[in-house]
Amino acid sequence: MAPLMVGARGNALARLWPYGLLLLLLAVLPAVVSSYALHILSTLGIAVILALGLNILMGFAGQVSLANAAFFGIGAYAVAVLGNGYGVTFWLALPLVALLTAGIGFLVGLPALRVSSHYLALATLAFVWTVQVVLINWVSVTGGSPGLTSSRSGLGLSAFRADWTYYLLILAVTTVMVVLAVNIVHSKIGRAFTAIRDNENAAEIMGVNLAKYKTLAFAINAFYCAVAGGLQAGLVRFLDPYEFGLWPSIWHLLYIVVGGLGSIPGSILGPLVLVSLPEALRGFAEYRELIFAVLMLLTLIYLPNGIAGGIDRLRQRWRADRATAGSNDTDAASAPQRQSATVLTTAHAPPAHGGISLEVAGLTLSFGGLKALQDASLTVKEGEIRALIGPNGAGKTTFLNLLCRVYTPDAGTMRFRGRSLLDVKSHDLVRLGIVRTFQNIRLFAKMTVLDNVLVGMHSHLDHGIIGCAWRLPGAMEEAREAQRKASLLLGYVGLEHARDMPAASLSFGQQRRLELARALAADPALLLLDEPASGLDKSEVAELLAVLHTIRDQLGVSILVIEHDMNFVMGLADRITVLDHGVVIAEGIPRDIQRDQLVIEAYLGKGHALVEA
Amino acid sequence: MELVPQLIVSGIAAGSLYALVAIGLVLIYKATDIVNFAQGESVTVGAYMGWLCITQFRLPYFVAVVLVLAGSALVGMIVERVAYRPLLKSPPFTVILATLAVGLIIKNAIRLVWQDTPRTISGVFSAEPIEIGSVLITPERLAIMFTVALVVALLVLFFRFSKLGKAMRATAQSQEAASLMGISVPGIFSKTWALGSALGGLAGVLIAPLVGINTELGAVLVPGFVAAVVGGFTSIPGAIVGGILVGVLENLGGVFISSSFKQVVPFVVLITVLMVLPTGLFGKPLRKAV
Known about the structure:
Chain A has 613 residues and is an alpha/beta fold. Helices cover 56% and strands 11% of the residues of chain A. By secondary structure, chain B is mostly helical. Chain B has one domain. Helix content of chain B is 71%, strand content 2%. A two-stranded antiparallel sheet of chain B has the order 1-2. The N and C termini of chain B lie far apart (52 Å). At the A-B interface, helix 5, helix 11 and helix 13 of A face helix 4, helix 9 and helix 11 of B.
């Protein structure tokens, strides 16, 4: 689904009218359908909210959870108890409970920071189990295993006593929740979620605070579930604790697996199928669970992206057919059209610290008994291109990982513009102006080319969840500006024609250029490049060389490049540092390094020249 | 307080069954990186097959155990074939959901055939408690503990000395290298799922005389999983220690805190371990790979 309103307002109206019409149709349905059908439609609305919440957490942020039904239960019971027991009106109770439940969601998400999917499944399973035990055993509040009676008048919803009015309320809330979800997933928050899902390391390097966004995803999930729960408390006559256990959680999972993981339309289609299907299967009640399990298995195998994914694939095929039948202007479009780098500016202040960008001294790290780095020192001046070379296993990548705070050194100092990096977290490097690329390219494979670049700007976008979810003018302005800049960057690396394609569909050389554009999007003052030329052919290497020189000359970015390809390094670097077995064995300008006897021996053994003259 | 040794001993008996389930999970996880959520159903299948063999076909208990092992191994191979192999290229999460789906299919198929009526079988050993020191224990529970110990010993020997066991260990370490050495990796997967599932089935037929047989037996997956997590998820000794720990804590918590608390104990243990020791008691610390 496209963002609801990126372009001009008239444009948005043209795009939105089908949704408006659909909404109008849904709103007049009570006039024509039976009260039973109305109940099913109300249930469907609540199911859609549950599916949206779970999809944001699992489909977009990639965090596994079986706790959906627990948050649903907390929301339902809390609203019911507050309303029927203490006379708190629904209108106050619902937002209050939703926010509190979001807080609980945040806490449940904490283990996500330390453990990966399998454990997370169990930790959340533990939570759903615990909540159910509490619901069943805290009899004085929850009514225990017989359940808790609830009524709309008890909740202060006398105006909505008629079923059709309550249905309209659910429809309104569901619509709002759908719009909010669309807005969130198309904002910087949604991009951060997807980036975490696709590649945690790269997301962190681009400044996405993993802890913050993972727990935020859980909080949003809990918020959605609690809203659904509050609505449920008004829909049914009594709450049954057994409807908030593990099986309902799995049921919610089924909504999004069948509908489509990581798809908002899928979060609507899944519940649509799964809420209406049982009604169609009412004659086969005892086979129901079996039928659903089979359906789930078949979907996983044959429709891995759910119904929404299947529809997308059909649409793409149809579009591709049309494109080939039409013109063949694709060739012209794919020719890179370079724009000048002068359109770019860097946000980082000009050199302040005596012209020194990076200063590393005495860096030492051992893995067990193996000394990976021993007393390594290196200084990069502002605006310098420095290469760090050395044979395999020399410690180059270890050096980079130390800089990027993946490892902590046993000894030594690392300063960037005078500031020590030892107490800086990985995701904060980009805010200081340090960005790296990876040897084995780490793009966000399923995101579009444009979104990949936008993630690069993550740390410079200031608007939070409220601004993004409600599309406040400030956040929108910021988002438009970011899009404009991202387009420029794509033009600069010759990928503008591919902006809406998934990153995974690019060729290897294009992926390297995209990774570079993403790094530049973060306005770096120091670029760390991990073997940027590996896997490129001769002409691509020459292009890269030119691009890197432009980046340095026009943006004043300092570059530290780790490289294997000698010819490339000789043409690129101002100065070269050579590592061997974790020790710096030489440093100097390319011409001297080429003749350095120690270096030649380290690389080739005695009696060889390093590079053909 | 004189209850404590008693509670510990019966906790060990329950825990050794959790350990069996956990070892099954660990074996499959080590080989394929997948947590088999259908493992609980192999316990159910084991129990029902035991019931069929003993009360319907009037076979001796020991023959029944052998048939159960074979039958639940077959279940494991089926799960591997329908839920794992078609999804080799999918993310682990999808495969886990698929094993969950297969588990549900098995559970519901059993329910359709035999309904929800609980069934019982009697074991070969007496349920009349005997006194050892100050502790009362039934020969039945003693036999379970002994059987589990025997199975674990056999497993250790199997992995150390048999050709197949070595091939399984090699595959768990590197599928590519194992394949280059002429090991059929798909074949090993299939056998690993069979073995893991057979251990679940054994747990089922062992536990059946104690707790009766119904379609909810698969819930033992949860304490089994916790046991595996506590043990680090890649270690067989870890799974045993984890299983016994969960069993004992469950018993102690059930008596000293409240009986409804007993069900929550595994989760309290789980969350504590996840927060304090994310790699478990026996897991190797992982360095983040970059």
